[in-house]
Specification:
This protein is α/β, with parallel strands linked by helices and about 325 residues long. It is built from seven helices and twelve strands. A hairpin with a 4-residue loop joins strand 9 and strand 10.
Length: about 325
């Protein structure tokens, strides 16, 4: 698995603000807004935390080599242990389902009447100079992955979203400007706690239908929250103090402003982004019939136009 990173300019942005500009964003953001989706993990991945550095002095690249070796070993071990789950999802096309949801929901008077969606499997930091004119100066970027955490406590589906301008230099390097909007969306599926249980064995006993339902729910909630954040109601909340509360569901707590709730999940918004938690268990009822997309009600769009989709399987 290749680890990819946000461009440095995003890391400099304040983590406490969702709307990063003092100027209000237009509605819609653009008549034909380019949307670039980066599928950072095309299958279930395994999260490896960074190895802790000691206080002992090192010379040259030795510490980097040590960290790399440790992380490589951890990743190989973790990916081998979740292999049964990955095999159950081998025919699940996360990319197609995500693009279908974006096409259905992004086209609106709040986001863009006629967005265009392009999908990439690697971050683009440069293009062929002769293709510079094809790189739009304003773009909505969505980077997504779905990962098992290091201790097998949860599966997290993440959507990192930013609206930013960019330029292409004469050499083809893409120069990103400070984002005018940035938002982190997380859909967490923590494993319901059972004292003394083997978490990995319980995950592997989930079965394909339960796993598919989880990912379908993540796509439904994630795209709903993304679109909602550009609605007139949500725009008014960007700069206002949030009425936060703590919600508990099946032994798990989450704090923020309530966005959506049911007996099975709770979704909140806070200054760092939006988060849904949906505790799961291998004993949960199976979806009726074959696995189907989530029936979670979506926030209605203001527009009815459909987005066009282009797919690019190679980075430029």
């Amino acid at each position: 698995m290749t680890t990819r990173f946000w461009p440095a300019i995003v890391l400099l942005a304040s983590t406490s603000l969702v709307h990063a500009s003092n100027k209000p964003l237009p509605a819609p953001l653009a008549p034909a807004l380019p949307v670039e989706v980066y599928i950072e993990q095309s299958e279930l991945g395994y999260t490896v935390p960074g190895a802790e550095r000691t206080n002992e002095p090192y010379i040259g690249a030795v510490p980097d080599l040590i960290v790399s070796a440790i992380n490589s070993h951890r990743r190989q071990r973790g990916e081998a242990e979740i292999a049964p789950m990955k095999n159950q999802l081998v025919e699940y096309n996360f990319e197609d389902k995500l693009v279908q949801a974006l096409r259905a929901k992004l086209a609106s008077n709040d986001v863009s009447p006629h967005p265009t969606i392009a999908v990439f499997n690697a971050w683009r930091d440069r293009v062929d100079p002769k293709d510079a004119a094809q790189v739009s100066p304003l773009v909505l970027v969505i980077r997504t992955s779905y990962m098992m955490d290091y201790f097998y406590y949860r599966i997290r589906v993440s959507f990192s979203v930013m609206l930013a301008e960019r330029e292409v230099s004469s050499s083809g390097t893409i120069d990103w400007k400070q984002p005018t909007y940035r938002h982190e969306l997380w859909m967490d599926f923590p494993l319901v706690k059972v004292k003394g249980s083997d978490k990995l064995a319980r995950w592997n006993a989930m079965g394909r239908d339960r796993l598919v339902r989880m990912l379908d729910d993540a796509i439904a909630h994630g795209t709903d929250m993304l679109v909602y954040d550009f609605s007139p109601e949500a725009r008014k909340l960007w700069e206002q103090p949030m009425d936060t509360q703590t919600f508990e569901l099946k032994g798990f707590k989450v704090t923020g402003a309530l966005y959506r709730q049911s007996p099975d999940f709770v979704c909140i918004r806070n200054h760092g982004g939006s988060q849904c938690i949906e505790p799961v268990s291998e004993t949960d009822p199976l979806p009726p019939g074959s696995a189907t997309p989530s029936a979670t009600p979506a926030i209605p769009d203001a527009g009815a136009a459909s987005a066009s989709t282009t797919t690019d399987a190679q980075s430029h």
